[in-house]
Amino acid sequence: MLHIKNLNKHFGGIKAVKDCSFEVKENEIVALIGPNGAGKTTVFNLLTGFIKPDKGHVHYKGTPLLGVKPYKISNLGITRTFQLIKLLPKLTLVENLLIAKQQSGEHLLNIMFKPKYIKHEEKENRNHCVELLDLVGLKDKRNHYAKNLSYGQQKLVEIARILATDADLLLLDEPVAGVNPVMRAKIKNILKKLKEQGKTILFIEHDMKFVMDIADRVVVLDYGTEIATGTPKQIQKNPRVLQAYLGKKVKL
Amino acid sequence: MALEAYIIHILIIIGIYVILALSLDLAIGYTGLLNIGHVAFYAVGAYTSALLALNFGTPFLISFLAGGIIAGIFSLVVAIPALKLRGDYLAVATLGLAIIVENILKNWTSLTRGPLGLPGIPKPTIFGITLTGITYLALVIVVGVVTYYLLRYLIKTPFGRILQAIREDELVAKSLGKNVTKYKTQALLISAFFAGLAGSLYAHYITFIDPTSFSILESVLIISMIVVGGIATLKGAIIGAIILILLPEALRFLPLPSSMIGALRQIIYAVLLVVLLIKRPQGLLGKKTEGVVTT
Fold first, then answer.
1. Residue B289: which pLDDT band, with cuts at 50, 70 and 90?
2. Contact: B178, A71; criterion CB under 8 Å
3. B125-155 pLDDT, tens per residue?
4. How large is the ipTM?
5. Which chain A residue is nearest to residue B159, measuring alpha carbons?
6. Residue B232 falls within a domain, yes or no?
7. B107: domain range?
8. Do B29 and B233 touch, CB atoms closer than 8 A?
9. Is residue A154 within 8 Å of A87, Cβ to Cβ?
10. Contacts of B179 in chain A (CB under 8 A)
11. Of A102, A108, A118, which is closest to B177 when you measure between CB atoms?
12. How many folded domains does chain B comprise?
């Protein structure tokens, strides 16, 4: 579904991503792990068009993604969350979700010529967004401003928002970072449910227990290059991975 | 009789500024485009409408709409380079725009007559009735009400919601598939269109325009209106326009010696505004920031 080949990106003298290649198959949950500064978020930014690569290839369902603008990539069915939560603080929760929808009422000509239709469409979308908020347990707060929620609740809204996009490939940047165990279990269940619905998920996470619990496959990055890929069990025993995380054995 | 004419005059000026404040609020308040050059669109509308009427004798409704449309087209020319900029940079670019337009008006003498201005702009005639005084006020009110309801409708549509999303966080809007540049351009276009209409209303009311009516200070006044009323509230824009026009007029009647009144008026005016903004930083009708702010 997603093929990444020889991706390269440097910032000044630092090679953030170096000949990185891996793939994500349809309906798979893949974890992207690696020490801090390994280039994980940079890979996300390259995939979603927020930064331009130096060279390499990325194909999504056969369509090349490199050089395509972020909003167009999103419209191909790829959506993402950000490492730091990015909600729209002065909009309500429902409005935060409605933004994720593609509606005819977003276009001025339709507003002028099809006012009834856009009203109807907005109503249906609003109902769907309330359902999604119900799914993450925040239906009661649908008319609250996003900024008045707790951190964990904001994370849930962010996940509900990517559900509202109808995207097939979800890129999640640290979905459970800084989240309490109850909320973590909740997010885990939601991701599992998403997989059952046929979604494909690629996520970055430092919480290894979470990664081992949920990932079908793990891709490990170190210094911008993928150094290992396999099932969670294989990765746990991989000497190169241990070395990347814990350092080389030194003879004393 | 004189008092009545004076009141009608004040109301017409308020009406014109209401339209300017409403239209600017769409750009600054709702879309987050810090446009300091709104007066440029106002000027383009006024000159377009006046020149059409003076040189070609076009009927009022046509010059009026042309004022809005040309101001809108002008905003597109501005949008292409300017909308790549954000926040403070956009503010500086639009400030430059206002100064450029003012200088063009001063120096393109073959078209605008420069500092001499354009006298004798005809009063509008609609269906054979020439609008002056109270009938002109009626025209301004109609345009103002239509502007208010159109903008209010627009900001409640999904289109309006995207503008607010762009104001809150451009990256989010992009990552959710919104063509941010397109929406900013459209917001600026609509904003400029209504400013152009206001310009036309001003030109045909005063019947004389010159570059001094469109200095950067006008932009500052319009921005003050939306800040005082409460940014991103349309009713606030209206209240702000009313207060900032009425306040200096009311101070005219203070029992002060005529040698002092000019300077004192400005001091009192400034002090009142500062006090207001200290007491209510969100503006008169601005929404209070509820609950805990987590950011």
1. low
2. yes
3. 888 788 788 899 999 999 999 999 999 999 9
4. 0.84
5. A106
6. no
7. 2-215
8. yes
9. yes
10. 69, 71
11. A102
12. 1
